[in-house]
Amino acid sequence: MEWELLAITVGILLAVLVSYGSTTARLRGIERKLNALLRHHGVDPTQGLLLSDRVKQLAADPGRKIEAIKVYREETGASLAEAKEAIESFTISK
After folding, report:
1. Which end of the chain has the lower number of beta carbons within 10 A, N or C?
2. What does DSSP assign to residue 48?
3. Domain boundary among 11, 29, 45
4. Is the pTM of this model over 0.90?
5. CA atoms within 13 A on the CB side of 5
6. pLDDT averages per 10-residue partition of the chain, 94 residues
């Protein structure tokens, strides 16, 4: 009886994890398409992004750009490409 309950619990957990992964992947795809549309119409998708003071401080030092990208990703959950774009946009506009 215990094994059956454990097997059912593990099955449900796996189903939830798979569903979460596919939802996250779909959202990333939608966000990429939206950013492409914004760029096509001359709107910078990174404009107006709020960078924390910590990220700004790290991004201001060219030698710590990678660290700034890592911290930005930790704080926002952004993809590597999105974080790199946000940091580069900040350093260019600065």
Report:
1. N
2. T
3. 45
4. no
5. 2
6. 83 82 80 83 72 92 94 89 88 72
